Hints:
A hairpin with a 7-residue loop joins strand 8 (173-176) and strand 9 (184-187). The chain has a seven-stranded antiparallel beta sheet. About 19% of the residues have low confidence. The chain has 65 helices and 44 strands. Helices cover 41% and strands 13% of the residues.
Amino acid sequence: MARLADYFVLVGYDPGKRGSGDGQGQILQRFPEKDWEDNPFPQGIELFCQPSGWQLFTERNPPTFFVAVLTDINSERHYCACFTFWEAVESAQPQSHSRNGEEEEEEPSSPVQPAQLFAPKSLVLVSRLDHAEVFRNSLGLIYTIYVDGLSVSLENVIGNLLTCTIPITGGAQRTISLGAGDRQVIQTPINDSLPVSSCSVALLFRQLGITNVLYLFCAALTEHKILFLSSSYQRLTDACRALLALMFPLKYSFTYVPILPAQLLEVLSTPTPFIIGVHSIFQSETQELLDVVIADLDGGTVNVPECVHISLLPEPLLQQTREALSMVLDPELEVADLAFPPSTISASSLKMQDKEIRAVFLRLFAQLLQGYRWCLHIIRIHPEPVIRFHKAAFLGQRGLTEDDFLTKVLEGMAFAGFVTERGAPYRSIDLFDELVAYEVKRMRAEEGNKQKILRHIKELAEKLYKNENPYPAVTMHKVQKPTEGCHLRLHQKPFPRLDEGTVQWIIDQATAKLQTAPPAVKAEKKCMVPSGPPIAAIMERNGNALANSARRLEVVRNCISYVFENKMLEAKKLFPAVLRAMKGRAARHCLTQELNLHVQQNRAVLDHQQFDFVIRMMNCCLQDCTAMDEHGIAAALLPLVTAFCRKLSPGITQFAYSCVQEHVVWTNIQFWEAMFYCDVQNHIRALYLDNNEENHTDEESTEGPQEAKSALEIASEQLRLWPTMSREKQQELIQKEESTVFSQAIHYANRMSYLLLPLDTSKNRLLRSSGLGDVESVSNSFVTNSIAGSVAESYDTESGFEDAESSDVANYVVRFINRFVDKVCTESGVTNEHLKGLHVMIPDIVQMHIETLDAVHRESRRLPPIQKPKLLRPNLLVGEECVMEGLRVYLMPDGREEAAGGYIGGPPLLPAEGAIFLTTYRIIFKGTPTDPLVGEQVVIRSFPIASLTKEKKLANVQGQAEHLIQECWQLRSCTFQLLRIAFDEEVASDSAEIFRKHLHKLRYPQHVRGTFAFTVGQSPKQAMQPKAKEKNPSLRTLSKNLVKNAKKTIGRQYVTRKKYMPPMWEQRSSQHFPEDNEDEISVSEEMDRSTLTPTTTIKPSDKMTINHLVERACCRDYQRMGLGTLSSSLTRSKNEPFRISTVNRMYAICRSYPGLLIVPQSIQDNTIQRISRCYRQNRFPVVCWRNSRTKAVLLRSGGLHGKGVVGLFKSQNAPTAGPSQTDSTSLEQEKYLQAVINSMPHYADASGRNTLSGFTSAHMSSSGKWGSIRASGRMSSYALNVEIGSRLAGKDLLGAQHNGTPSEASFLRQHRASLYIIGDKSQLKGVKPDPLQHWEVVPIEVFDVRQVKASFKKLMKACVPGCLSTGDTSVTYLRSLEESEWLSQIHKILQISVLVVELLDTGSSVLVSLEDGWDITTQVVSLVQLLSDPYYRTLEGFRLLVEKEWLSFGHRFSHRGAQTLAGQSSGFAPIFLQFLDCVHQIHLQFPMEFEFSQYYLKFLSYHYISNRFRTFLLDSDYERIELGLLYEEKGERKSQQVYKSIWDYIDRLNKKAPIFFNYMYAPEDGEVLRPYSNISNLKVWDYYTEETLSEGPSYDWELAQGQPEHVEEADRQDTSAPQTKRKIIWPCYDNRSRVEPDAISKLLEELHNLEMELGQVPERWKDTWDKVKASQRTEARPEGSRTPSSLLMSSSLSHHRRSLGVYLQESGVGSTLNLSLDSDTSSTSTPSSGKQGGRKSTSTLYSQFQMSESENRSYEGSLYKKGAFMKPWKPRWFVLDKTKHQLRYYDSRMDTECKGVIDLAEVESITPGAPTIGAPKTVDEKAFFDLKTTKRVYNFCAQDVQLAQQWIDRIQSCLSDA
């Protein structure tokens, strides 16, 4: 029984005291006056009666009622029911009025007193029970008695109220009366653990809505601060009560103040969580609270500040809860859309709805906490139970470790209280216990079925409702209410002063009576709490099905049994699969169970290899565990690590723990606690089991339900018996339990020292520096370091020790263990003296362990290291020598997934173990994969040293490498290769450093002479010396003379300069020639004329030079184009518009130009010399190509200096400095350009402005071809920007057609300039077009070298990423590709080139004058020539193009490729590579126009930076001559094997094998190509992405060829047997073109082999190919009309090309459209499948190699054949060919062209036929026969019956032979 009310208090306004403006309250009377012993009087009640402050009012308000809640120091709640009414203030105290703040504020000036003021007065009941309605009635009754003056003594009523007692729980019903003729019925709830909520929960949802309440609910559970605002106090109380009711079964344990008085508002800034209600008038004061969730009940909003993150319920629970709430609160929602909604649907009554909502939350908690009892550890039973909850196990088994919400809830105070309160195994149980134990399965089953869920909710709601209202019928209250409006009566007496004595007397009497009455004993129904199903049984559904597949577990089991049966090879094969399987939880559990089986009597001695395997498995198992150990893997392994061991030497054993210390879990004190409690629980369980039954001693695990009794059940049983035991027995049990705990503590102190002390304690190695960085590492070294360092560190931070650095590992470990022991022993009630004993013991344990470890460490050092694979030596080129012997390294996987067996699958080739070699030419890694499944393969990755662009050290990359790795490097090469190498521990760090230094020396030699192309064949040491001896003296003298002459000429220049130059020039030249000022020869000055004009007496050395110059590529090309011969230029013949000038033969005018240049005939050499000064680097305009049809010429030059042509266009108002010399230069320049224009024939014909009328649109449309047959679908206009467009198309932008071809109309405008100068926009600022000139400047924006470099870097990172990206790799790749902007630069180059091609093709000349004239200019000019002139698309022509435009015209290969030390800072700029990429794009769009294959382009891309050949070294012809490179004597080349020129090498290879040849080469005459340049049309070059791990890059042909000989031999033996073996080709491993060559290469090879076998001298492949083509041509002519048109690339193709298309298709490779038949990229060809079988294609191919004359004719004759459907019968000559197995027919006997072929392989049957319409009339019916093939039926008829029979027999015999 309990008192209904503890105190009755009367509180009034205190006129004497004034706070700041507000009044204060005072307690006028309280009853009883002395405190109850069990319940002291709460302080501060007067504050809560008027929460917004005590004030006087000018009118009477109606009485109010609310309940405030106070919490006392013992966290007991006191409910203060406040009933407030207003009384007039007596005017007898006028001074109080004037002092009253409120009144002063209202009328500060008026001396007149207002008539009346009213002060509040409150009646307060203080109780520990929450019966708000009873309190409202009782206080109302007291007020009514006072107001209506009833004849009842107030003292009596109050006395009765204070002495009324009611039962607390049990669902009793009690009628009480206060002695005023009233009656109230009080029902107590059946079970007081369930909260009582009446309607408050439903109201809260009405006010805030579902989502908001869920936010508040989660915020309260995760310990956020919550503040309610409302203008009603009662609503605040209700809302707070509702929130607490929702949290059941958790109890809120922080600050809880449903109504907070104004004076206490500063409580809101407390740091702890709270639930507080505040009146809305204080809303402004709550604004600055930053971390409080504010719920406004009146406005229905919940405001969550930005800095607060509320973790919501885990899905799918959140969604399910929302749906359930919506079904309860808004049932109409379900049927809102129905056409005929049921009429009856309505929500339950408010009270019922309240219970339904609570039922939803009750279900939610049951689902959240299901199985929680299986994670309770009971560590003491007597004297009272001590219980701990194993949070990690719970989260892990539920699969919710990542879930924020549940983790926070479990860490919260509320849950700690829940465990304390509900953890006990023997207690009374309530609805929640039943729900979580028995209904979980049902909830799981009903998931998703709304009807069933709703039914369950209603059932629960019924129970909850019944609990609150056990007797629903009785509501017979009878309480008097005051009359209406009585509070407004004017002359109301104040509330009387009560007589304390009377009240006290009533109370005393009642207490005396109570003492004599017998004590009411509350019969508590205690029982054993049911545990419910274990989590494992519930949770398996969201365990990943894949991870738990039985197959994986099988693999784990097999591997372990192999290890223990000593079948090491088998184990090794399975091992990688086991390591992969370990990602799954089930496999890890399986491992621990399997290992457990192999432990006998706590010990398992293994040999070294077994030990090694077990350790590696354990490490792998542990590496995925977090510190929490949520799946109990570490826990299961803990007993095993002290069981597995190996003998190192007599008496010295190494246990597994010394090798698995590298895991963070061992340093987590929570893990050790959980483990400790788990073990203690097992032992205590065993303790009591022993007493009962002896046979249950060996129980270990507490998990599965198969055991006799769980620990909780035993505990419950013991607790039931406890009161019945004798005192001695109790003591004995307590002592037993305590000593059990104590012995476990000692055991754990040992265990922890095992796992925390590193094997090598002498080093004092604290892992402080590395932190826990390498936690993931799986190390199998015998020397492992432990995590002791970091342990101690974490320990320190809490204990505040500062001496961490100096102290050693032992101290750290001791402190860590001490802390652990303190915590667990105090929690589990170990006695103090025992605890002290432990503290003394721990340092000894640690010390002892260190001593044993020292011996183990010493012995383990002596173990022979694990056998490592022997190092494989790489094959070297002739002349390539090793600089450093191989260092053992691991090649780690990088961002490319293929080799690592990524998403494509396939075995992981990386990481591979091998060695890195440094030769004079390359860096080579050669080794074997660490994965034993591919251990036989060899992995090679290499790249030329010269292509190294970046090296960086990486943080330790630890993959599955088995050994500790010292340092890791990443070397990146611009041949798109990446070596991530990690040095093995055996490699001393200084040798790695030496390796790096050598690498640097070789990468950046002092001088070009240091590069491999020069040092090849010499010993490496010599190579390091700066100058090497030249081999050929005559060459040397020649080049010396040349250079001497050049210097002489230029020297003279120096002398003469002073006369010529105005000072302006000097300054200008110094500003504009930074490059040239570095040399001692400046080329920017005027020349002495005598040295320049070719006199008749040319010195002998000069003659020699000129002869050499004539042999140069350019010269041959000029003569090919008819741009003049040398003789004509010397004899000045006037008929040619251009001449070859020798003005630069000494490289005096322009150092970077070739010696012979094409200039207009009319220009003198000395003019040239002056003009050259206007251009950067003196690169003046020279002709490099002429269009043979339009005679338009292409010129190139450097960009302009400030003056020059630009001067011509700029406004003339700027005064020129000095003499008019600049003008004269400009004029000469103008003259020069005019001379170029004059050279064009159409210009000479027409007088004045040319209209281009001569070139009609026919030229435009007929010549030239776009990159696809279809002209649609392309929107790129070739207007590079608005300016050119407007200039070319007369202000209306280029009316581009769809396909991006400039529209003809715009190109044939009347005013077409004769010469376009394409210049850089930035230099041509302020240029005005001048109508009098015949040329036009086209300013365009181009990117500079810096952008190319940056773009290339990004491209390399995209194509060869350094590390795996997180996200979707393909998306990342595309994104980084786009960011690199590489393709957009290629687009720009192609766009400019196509524009220039268009201009040249329509008859205008073009001068390309960009940057210094050696980067972008070269790219554009070369591409224009390639597109316009088919000659350059042959092997020979392309070579010539590169030699002319790139080498002779001085593209700075050495500078751009950073080939020497000087270029190191500037970095690598792939200008030439970009050009080759453009060519590759054009090649893809026009595969039949190029004689060379894609492989040829890749070969050049690789070798132009590899420094293997001298071709691409140095920056200009001048430098090459200086080194004596350019004119090597004819004899020298033959003598040496080493090829110095890449072209010779290519020629030689091309003779041997068709690797550079494009089989689809079938050019059309005079074809001008116009490729599409939109980025959508461009493809990423596979050169950037592919690699061949089996042999390294395939561009060093000798190396690639050298290897697979033996493999082929083996293959060849197989061929005799039927070829069932599939050939597996790995995308990144095999060289596809060699393993699976395309059809043609294969046939050529077979032919070659056959000829060799026959002992003939094999024919060159080229001759064979030409023959085949010739026979193709002859066969194709009459048949051309029959080829399937789908194959044609365009309708205007020649017959030859069509037949080639068919031929390729029949070869089983697929359509020619997607076939690139070069030897490098051809897709792996598979014979086309089809009904006809594979034979047809081979026979057709075979026919290509037989000339049509020598055909095999087994039998022939004339037959009539019926044509196809609706065609007549015709006589044909038939030939039966047994060899080719076919029946051919011809028009007549003499005809050589076959009309058709019937393949006998397709013949199904041959039957006698019948004549059809149109058959020959004369013939006998029996002479007809039908031939049925898979495709159709052929009808034949012979001259007579015998012939027919003969044909039938012959064909039959052929068929049977086959």
